[in-house]
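Q: Here's a chain of 482 amino acids. Please give me its 3D structure as tokens.
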Amino acid sequence: MKASARASKREIAAKNPAAESWRAFPARQQPDWPDPRALRAVTDDLATAPPLVFAAECDQLRRRMAAVARGEAILLQGGDCAETFERATADAIRGKLQTLLQMAVVLTHATALPVVKVGRMAGQYAKPRSSAVEERAGVVLPSYRGDAVNALEFTEAARVPDPRRLRAMYEASARTLNLVRALTTGGFADLRQVHAWNEGFVAASGAGERYAQLADEIGRSLDFMRACGVDTRELATAEFFVGHEGLLLDYEAALTRTEPAARTEPGTRTDPGTRTDPDPDLGTGRAYATSGHLLWIGERTRDLDGAHVEYFSRVANPIAVKLGPTTSPDTVLALLDRLDPDREPGRLTFVVRAGADRVRDLLPTLVEKVNAEGALVAWVSDPMHGNTTTAPSGHKTRRFDTVLDEVRGFVEVHQELGTHPGGIHVELTGDDVTECVGGGNAVLEEDLPHRYETACDPRLNRAQSLDLAFLLAEMYRGRGGS
């Protein structure tokens, strides 16, 4: 891009609010909406809709992510590869939440650290694609880009991008959030109940004997608390956040909200620099993406001069960036400067999706370069996306042992560097699907067609997810999880 063009775009961005400045930059992976007027009608409607999440919640998560960056907490993020409207049911939501709560209890006990729980849900309805079109039997149609854009059925009508689906995504996300909030505050997350679920898993798991000691330790800890008269009523609730890839910028822009700025009065607190920081109780003037608490920029859309980086540089949410196997240290440092110029712990998370065969080579240099800049970011492993293969049946799949090996490599690198392995970001479901191969109750390749239900990429089922949690717990304890 020529310098004059970049300067012009900066001028436009400087004059535009957070919700609009990205329009001056190239936006990758956006749908080819056939009717711009219909799109504008939907986004105008969403611009006046209530926010799905609130600024105070985003600020709370930012503080929690700062603890992850400092090595004082662990991030556990998981959920569907691509949510669908059809499967946004109470049972499916409850199953994912239950699985994440079970995993969190295991990790909390093993690390003696709080676990920050973020569902990959209530907004994960859009997907980037490697090709704009899909071909079957000589018929070429637009690729499925998630229920927020078009339908999975391979017909011409179904694959036309329809902006009314953005409104349907908002409504489905609102229903999901309502149920999640009700469950996490209404007793579903009670620690004793979650432990009972884990005891049931250990009893039924093919690898249950290996996990029995850790499960027994958790049970004895709960018994000790009860014997000491500890009031466990607070353990009946759980703090839970949601996030998704911030892919569809028209949608994200429509749900961008700016907190009212407080007037500067005598005695207002200020930073040592020139920026004035009004009392947070009076308003901040900051913009938030209110579609979710933690949003991330994907591997395909993290162009430094692209619209996604521009948009997310202007909102105050905690944000993440996916880093694939070809990521260079210079790119990471440039992303750091664009997205976290003030080096604020909790602002930025790097999610590494290098692949099991590359993570041990790629990660050390990236961590060392970021540390040399004095930045305190959270480092998280995505062991799913770099390890996708195709089974003889034609199904996309992932091997549990390979997923585990990438997590192990991620933890080993941080242990060797003396830095903090901040957690994991995985695609999972609470259902007994057959999409990934292996695990304690092993799914075989010939099992894949039985319950292959994902709308996009393969997910760990409930048992595989809990296998991963117990094995990761062993890694954090220094026993390797091999």
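Q: Can you summarize the key feature?
A: The two ends are 48 Å apart (CA to CA).
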